Amino acid sequence: MSIDIMIEDMAKDAKAAARLLRKIERDTKDAALRLMADRLLQRKKDIVRENKKDLALAEEKGLTSAMIDRLTLDDKTIRSMAEGLREIAVLSDPVGEVTGMWKRPNGLMVGRVRIPLGVIGFIYESRPNVTVDAASLCLKSGNAVILKGGSEAINSNLILEKILKESLEETGLPQNAIQVVPSTDRKAVRILLGLEDYVDIIIPRGGEGLIRFVAEHSRIPVLKHYKGVCHIYVDEFADMVTASDVCFNAKVQRPGVCNAMETMLVHDKIAGDFLPLIGKRLREAGVEIRGCPKTLSLIPQAVPAEEADWAAEFLDLILAVKIVSSMDEALDHIDKYGSDHTEAIITKDYERSMKFLREVDSSVVLVNASTRFNDGNQLGLGAEIGINTSKLHAFGPMGLEELTTTKFIVYGNGQVRS
Amino acid sequence: MSIDIMIEDMAKDAKAAARLLRKIERDTKDAALRLMADRLLQRKKDIVRENKKDLALAEEKGLTSAMIDRLTLDDKTIRSMAEGLREIAVLSDPVGEVTGMWKRPNGLMVGRVRIPLGVIGFIYESRPNVTVDAASLCLKSGNAVILKGGSEAINSNLILEKILKESLEETGLPQNAIQVVPSTDRKAVRILLGLEDYVDIIIPRGGEGLIRFVAEHSRIPVLKHYKGVCHIYVDEFADMVTASDVCFNAKVQRPGVCNAMETMLVHDKIAGDFLPLIGKRLREAGVEIRGCPKTLSLIPQAVPAEEADWAAEFLDLILAVKIVSSMDEALDHIDKYGSDHTEAIITKDYERSMKFLREVDSSVVLVNASTRFNDGNQLGLGAEIGINTSKLHAFGPMGLEELTTTKFIVYGNGQVRS
Predict the structure, then answer these.
(1) Which of A189, A268, B368, B401 has its Cβ near the most Cβ atoms within 10 Å?
(2) CB distance from A392 to chain B under 8 Å?
(3) What pLDDT shows up at residue B166?
(4) Is residue A68 domain-resident?
């Protein structure tokens, strides 16, 4: 069978499964999720055996130790996948929630009710635990999913799919609700991106290259996340301790993620006191500071920032620092170089905090808190399938609710239009 | 100046205007809308003069009288545009609405607040009154808009733009919030669809050809509406009078629109009584009936339906009729041939009404009411910029709220992640 036909068949099967899935009540979905957790733990040996095949191939190919680390499934990661499944089972089911209902002058009762999106194409890179995460979020929200993972994780992904499917079957759910593309052929992604008649939405997760490829070639709507060039603006009226703690946390606690701070903007009235203090703390943590000319005079170890640094997502212990002469200059800078991802202000001033919340157009805007909180779990969505930095459908972190849409339901008693 | 540079400059100007616009409070936007209404009435002569240029060209080109009718701006249509503006001014402003706020265990207050989408590209066909409709909805929801209308309405659109811009300026709003593409070059659409760095969303309104062109070439997310193949299922437990009145209304009251009924599915236990009755009434209204074999025996004047009729959007006094032996057969038929637009059931049975509302996956699902109610005004959204038949962002009719998105706002007091 050609890969074109195989992927199209998978998509058709997913659509049929989605039609069944949208009628399934929460109890059954939760039972399947809990069974999956049990089965993953029971089948640990099988999972590790298949994962070892991937690891052996990875070593042959000379993957870095960081990549091999991400690829590895062991006792700890398998337990963590099982816990993840049980956590999703506890979350409330968005499907069927009536988000509003009102009466029209002609007596029609009009409401909006949450329904699944349908079929989700999920395209991601190496970590095989993402297979279980994504599958469970899609199942709980009533969607069928087609998972296209990285080729280096193919054996791990297929054994995980097998175990998940067995649990679906035992619970009486359609097995095609969860499908892993059983091919490492790169053409599979292109084919999937063209199946607009069967697939409702594409969610890519991975590096900027993958995301750009998907966005460019998809005929299906894509919820995508390019990059996080996150700013903290330390206002002239900032509390020094808060500013120092929050900026340090946002840069150092986990520098390799999208919600880490990449540029710090400091009001010049506080820069003289604040920059030497935070500069010392950051340098002691190994952070390289790339500063504007004024910054260089206050942090001697800083190197001059180049134009490209203001737009850079370093994902590393590097920070761009700029002194601004007003809050408006900070807002203009964010508008010019920001990525609409996450921005924070540190201030004790009420008006400025309100202005920042109002005027900054990013998916998450914070006052006196770390940018690291842009995360579905941290914000209280319960779980996260990704972060969307385009404004359509769901701006920011996406949880279960964001994997649904609403339809209108209308209760009439014979109304006609005149 | 080349058209590429012109359109790109318009998009940049729109983005700058959008940034200003999102800070504007409701009072100012409403004042601008009311002023626009006044100015349209005051400048009636100028509008009619420019419109006459379009009409003269249209006659030269030999456009049909229906097309010329749609193109014409006279006392009545100008008054109606002004009324439309005043109605939008009365609607509540979605921007700034906090749709939820909750407290996290670490004390963070997390909320979601409505913000404008940004820059909307609106691509449409002949009616120049749509220029004012779309511009007013975008303005009220805080969005800048680039309007690309039909070439045959260019003079009318440009005089309308001039009047709207003057009102923006008088109210202190950015003039580039509303821009009409001043060119009839077909390349303009292609260029606009590629400007993903400046334009947040594309809304096309027009025939299926236009929509498909836009969907195929856009690098920007598109909210689109292909077609409405709307069904009414007349259940075995339908009230005969309700069924007859609703089906007649859905087919005959305005057959040329997307929410008119195109296929009627009738349970065979009621078909013997119902079909001769409704058949007579529809035929008297000039409706051609294309039926399944069983239908032909109950409505002698009916002609045999071909396979293509089940998927057809007739937009005319033509109706496909099929007798089904169960509700599930009706649901399967809708699933196979429907367009996710609008579906209704006529029944007195509680369980069946609930099952239909639950299982039909269309943007509007009705019980005992006409499909013609799928309309933003009729459903209580206040106004409508279009209907979206894809599930992302806003499924179904889109009003002001659907021209916004939400961002997260977070009130902290020094929280960091550990």
Answers:
(1) B368
(2) yes
(3) 98
(4) yes
* B107 token code pair: 């004390």
pLDDT digits (tens, 9 = 90+) for B49-81: 999 999 999 999 998 988 899 999 999 999 999
Q: Is A315 left (phi over 0), alpha (psi -120 to 50) or beta?
A: left
Residues of chain A with pLDDT under 70: none
Q: Are residues A312 and A188 in the same domain?
A: no
Could you tell me how far CA B163 lies from the centroid of its own chain? 25
User: What's the pLDDT tens digit per position in B170-228?
Assistant: 999 999 999 999 999 989 999 999 999 999 999 999 888 899 899 888 888 898 887 89
How far is B213 from chain A, CA to nearest CA, in Å?
Answer: 12
Q: Which residues of chain A make contact with B397, given a CB cutoff of 8 A?
A: 408
Q: Are residues A57 and A202 in the same domain?
A: yes
| CATH number for position A338 | 3.40.309.10
Q: Which of A254, A390, A410 sits opposite B366 (nearest CB)?
A: A410
Residues B326, B244, single domain; the answer is yes
Q: Compute the count of residue pairs across chains A and B with CB atoms less than 8 Å apart.
A: 211
pLDDT in tens, B264-304: 999 999 999 999 999 999 999 999 999 999 999 999 999 99
Give the integer Cα–Cα distance in Å for B400 and B88: 9
User: Which residues have C-beta within 8 Å of that of residue A146, sequence separation ≥ 6?
Assistant: A10, A11, A14, A119, A120, A121, A122, A179, A181, A192, A199
ipTM: 0.94
| Domain encompassing residue A235 | 230-378
pLDDT score recorded for residue A207? 84
β partners of residue B261: B230
Yes or no, beta carbons of A407 and B396 under 8 Å apart: yes
Could you tell me if B268 and B157 lie in one domain? Answer: no
The reply to whether A159 and A254 lie within a common domain is no
Does residue A405 come out as left (phi exceeding 0), alpha (psi in the -120 to 50 range) or beta?
beta
- Regarding whether B261 and B122 lie in a shared domain, the answer is no
Does pLDDT of B338 surpass 90?
yes
Q: Are residues A255 and A321 in the same domain?
A: yes
Considering B185, B211, B226, which residue would you say is the last residue of a domain? B226
DSSP string, A369-405: E-GGG-SHHHHTSS--SEEE-SSSS--EEE-SGGGEE
Domain assignment of residue A86, yes or no: yes
pLDDT tens readout for residues A302-334: 999 999 999 999 999 999 999 999 999 999 999
Residue B383 predicted with pLDDT over 90 = no
Instruction: Tally Cβ neighbours within 10 Å of residue B50.
Output: 22
Q: Is A386 domain-assigned?
A: no
Measured between CB atoms, does B418 come within 8 Å of chain A?
A: yes
**Chain B contact set for A363 (CB, 8 A):** 407-408
Chain B contacts in chain A segment 223-242 (CB below 8 A): 239, 241-242
d(CA B120, CA B11): 10
Contact (CB<8Å) B365/A414: no
Chain B interface includes A406 (CB < 8 A): yes
The model's pLDDT over B80-125, given as tens digits with 9 standing for 90+, comes to 999 999 999 999 999 999 999 999 999 999 999 999 999 999 999 8
SS3 of residue A102 by DSSP: strand
From A280's Cα to the closest Cα of chain B, the distance in A is 19
Q: Is A374 on the interface with B (CB under 8 A)?
A: yes
